[in-house]
Specification:
There is one protein chain. By secondary structure, the chain is of the alpha/beta class. Helices cover about 35% and strands about 25% of the residues. It has a domain at about 110-185. It has helices at about 5-15, 65-70, 95-100, 120-125, 140-155, 170-180, 200-215, 225-235, 255-265, and strands at about 25-35, 40-50, 55-60, 80-85, 90, 105, 130, 135-140, 190, 220-225, 235-240, 245-250. A hairpin with a 6-residue loop joins strand 7 and strand 8 (about 135-140). Bound molecules: adenosine-5'-diphosphate (ADP) and magnesium ion (MG).
Length: about 280
């Protein structure tokens, strides 16, 4: 390859444009830095996430997980750097911009309304309507039909969508929150600590559901400090340490101990970074 070709190839991959296999990554974070005053919460992170991948972002408290997630979901604009979606440069001023680009976020508190049913929780704030303009009314038939489709077909949960969510366990509540994200028909879902408060069984339920969504082509980004859980089902695990992305591991090439070491020291084997 000539020097010009090599430079062009490097330029193409650096710009998030089509790579040699013809497809751009679903998401590309390029040299992203986020500062809050003098604190560098995210420090020059570059990362590609592929379509249908389950990518986990792990790190100790204060490592920058939430900040990076908030950059992807439009809560924070990066101080420096660029986000690409499907190879196209995007700029999010707020979460609606991210949503308009197919990125939905499920926050840790879930923010469900306990005394309302599943369908109402899923479509809260964006009910299907019928009629025109100020005379339009909520189309409940459509709300229930679409909720049922989301819960049964997309999430594989055979539930009565007229059940109030207060009767639900943690795992099922998490799935309703995912259902609410799906109502916007995203191709990327970011989840903040989706299994942190869950029992072993509920964790498995949520994992199986996320696996199913990934198989259907949805890209899943999980922010977590539950290393055991992400080892069990993420495709790749990115480790943040003091704002730096210090390593990316596949579950089969690492273990709990190694990830713990990376998370707490930012390196492996006394200062020697892995060569990948
Ligand atoms: N809105 C903010 N203003 C000032 N500092 C912040 C803000 N958000 C996060 N930080 C700081 O950025 C660093 C990374 O925080 P965060 O992204 O919340 O880490 P994590 O989610 O991994 O625990 C921490 O030092 C934190 O105090
Ligand atoms: Mg956090």
């Amino acid at each position: 390859m000539s020097v010009e070709d090599a430079a062009e190839t490097a330029q193409e991959s650096a710009s998030g444009q089509d790579t040699s296999d013809g497809s751009a990554p679903k998401l590309r974070v390029e040299n992203v830095t986020k500062q809050f005053g003098r604190i560098i919460a995210v420090d020059d992170v570059t990362l590609d996430i592929q379509e249908g991948e389950i990518f986990a972002l792990v790190g100790d408290n204060g490592a920058g997980k939430s900040t990076l997630m908030n950059v992807l979901s439009g809560v924070h604009a990066p101080t420096k750097g660029t986000i690409y979606k499907d190879g196209r440069e995007v700029h999010f001023s707020n979460p609606s911009d991210a949503r308009a680009n197919g990125i939905e976020t499920v926050y840790q508190d879930l923010a469900l309304m306990d005394d309302l049913d599943i369908a109402t929780n899923i479509f809260m704030g964006q009910f299907p309507r019928r009629g025109i303009g100020p005379l339009s009314i909520i189309d409940w038939e459509e709300t229930y039909a679409r909720s049922e489709e989301i819960m049964m077909e997309r999430l594989g949960r055979d539930v009565d969508i007229k059940t109030e969510v207060e009767f639900f366990s943690g795992g099922q509540r998490q799935l309703v929150a995912v259902g609410r994200a799906l109502a916007f028909d995203p191709d990327v879902i970011i989840l903040d600590e989706p299994t942190s408060a869950l029992s072993v069984d509920a964790t498995r339920l949520v994992q199986n559901t996320l696996d199913k969504l990934a198989e259907d082509g949805i890209t899943i980004v999980i922010v977590s400090h539950n290393i055991e859980s992400v080892l069990a089902h993420a495709d790749r695990i990115g480790v943040l340490y003091q704002g730096n992305l210090v390593d990316i591991k596949q579950p089969e090439e690492t273990d709990l101990e190694e990830l713990n070491e990376l998370m707490t020291t930012g390196t492996l084997n006394a200062g020697l970074l892995d060569d990948d």
